[in-house]
# Entry
Amino acid sequence: MYCVRKIYDDLYFVGANDRRLAMFEGVFSVPKGVSYNSYLLLDKKTVLFDTVDKAVGRVFFENVEHALNGRPLDYVVVHHMEPDHSATLTELLSRYPEAKVVGNAKTVNMIKQFFDIDLTGSAYIVKEGDTLDTGSRKLAFYMAPMVHWPEVMVTYDPVYKIIFSADAFGTFGAINGALFADEADFDRDYLDECRRYYTNIVGKYGQQTLNLLNKISVLDVEMICPLHGFVWRKNLDYIIEKHRKWATYTPEETGVLIAYASVYGNTENLAEIISAKLNEKGIKTKMFDVSVTDASEILSECFRFSHLVFASATYNAGIFIKMEELLRDIASHNLQNRTVGLVQNGSWVPIATKYMKEILSPLKNITILEETITINSSLKETQREDVENFVNAVVNSIKK
Ligand SMILES: Cc1cc2nc3c(=O)[nH]c(=O)nc-3n(C[C@H](O)[C@H](O)[C@H](O)COP(=O)(O)O)c2cc1C
Ligand SMILES: [Fe+2]
Ligand SMILES: [Fe+2]
# Structure
């Protein structure tokens, strides 16, 4: 049975939620599910903005059919060819063969790559600033390359002043009947998932995200309709400012994230002691065991906090595997503007910090503290001073 939500009399949300998916894109845990958004505009011409993942195809097609109410589908705008938004495109075209695909040259090429259909000649190909007249408005298209893929574009509706923003402004988490962010307690229930979504999916491309934010800033925007998560009709400045922070790799909070990798618990013990001492000195901390917490969550928190401490056991003459994975993930997401402290453990040749430093030092504007701690299997009373020195170095770098 269809489950649509009206945005205006002639604009509907026709997407759906998936709460059964274990790993989004194979790497990101989605314990609260995810929504695949699609919107249908019923102007003199009918326009569908994107399709959905195959997991929710059934209700999506029921939604489209219901909202069209017997009218033909004239256009489907493809903002992003990633299969979470395009896997049901060919089925849509077989149900609505008269629909013209609207996309840019890169989109049309990618459609050919993913599917055995060639739209050359039959698609409506647009570039930056081009428009599509749907009867009572001219939809305008703006390119947003690398917010998340190279072919990404967004649409501006000048009548309702809406940006259909593709993956930008998305969030993890099913939207549970609420469609507008103001219908939920976004700050309490979704901000962390929104940060985790942005930082993991788009985080590497801060400059490209800024380019899009700048394009949007000169338009008169009253609503943002993304491809995942809530529609924004209130407090647009709030969510735009959050994205500006993340896109510029500016910490949201002064405090220390401590991520540790420990086989037998001794590195963990050191991390606990460091954290306790920081708290005693009035510094806020958040701790993660890299073997337990999904890397996507720790990465997201690294974008949030100003200071990062990584503590690792040495493993096969290198870094503990989960810690290495996390650090490479952080590096490949271009994290910048952070102060980092590194500590290590090892029973014969402790060497983890050397390699941790190698991964993190190429990052822009990252200060790696000279102070470090090496323990041999377990922390000893004789090393209390090393711990004090390390903690003081972290505290001083925060006070600076
Ligand atoms: C598979 C494996 C490989 C290891 N490789 C090294 C190594 O190359 N060099 C070293 O000094 N210690 C190595 N260790 C030992 C641990 O780093 C060491 O015991 C450390 O104390 C573990 O800290 P933990 O109690 O936090 O797990 C290895 C341990 C395991 C299980
Ligand atoms: Fe995407
Ligand atoms: Fe997506």
Remarks:
- The two ends are 59 Å apart (CA to CA).
- Residues 384-399 form the longest helix (16 residues).
- The chain has 13 helices and 22 strands.
- The mean pLDDT is 97.
